[in-house]
């Protein structure tokens, strides 16, 4: 059974785009999962509803960007309708400093997904985290390095595994 993972991001800056691409590569390492990369400039509410999982990414601007917040706020009452309830979700961000609010940005993205009833997928501890990353989601600081890309691929693969398992075990 084919599953789809929407990777939705605000494209302000090359680092966030590079992370989105790496996440998509990780998603597609799973045989039965396809990645749909969309910026908020081209995504629709239908993309959110039709996907089996959603991974949100925003550059850190002391939290998510204003344009991403506006986009999310204008998707209607998805939380009230339950349109996204039960879908796996994850987050990623990029910024200029390790202590400049990266986890706040991830938390804001996760907060929106939790409000919609989504199931949050983080990253378990790994040696890669010594150099880069957060268990809340993928981070990159002052550009993207090899460890950041590995974590991004790992998150994409982890979300695809969990999504496929949930779809397989879902009662008819």
What attributes does this structure have?
single chain, 20% strand
Give a written overview of the molecule.
The longest helix has 24 residues, at 146-169. Strands 1, 2, 3, 4, 5 and 6 form a six-stranded parallel sheet that branches. The protein has helices spanning 14-27, 45-50, 66-73, 78-81, 102-115, 146-169, and strands spanning 3-9, 33-39, 53-59, 88-95, 119-120, 138-141. It has 172 residues and is of the alpha/beta class. The mean pLDDT is 92.
The fraction of residues in strands falls at: 15-25%
C-alpha end-to-end distance: 13 Å
Major beta sheet summary: 6 strands, parallel
Q: Report the total helices.
A: 6
Helix/strand layout:
Layout lengths: L2 E7 L4 H14 L5 E7 L5 H6 L2 E7 L6 H8 L4 H4 L6 E8 L6 H14 L3 E2 L17 E4 L4 H24 L3
Helix pairs in contact: 1-6
Q: How do you describe this structure in short?
A:
By secondary structure, the protein is of the alpha/beta class. It has helices at residues 14-27, 45-50, 66-73, 78-81, 102-115, 146-169, and strands spanning 3-9, 33-39, 53-59, 88-95, 119-120, 138-141. The radius of gyration is 15 Å and the shape is globular.
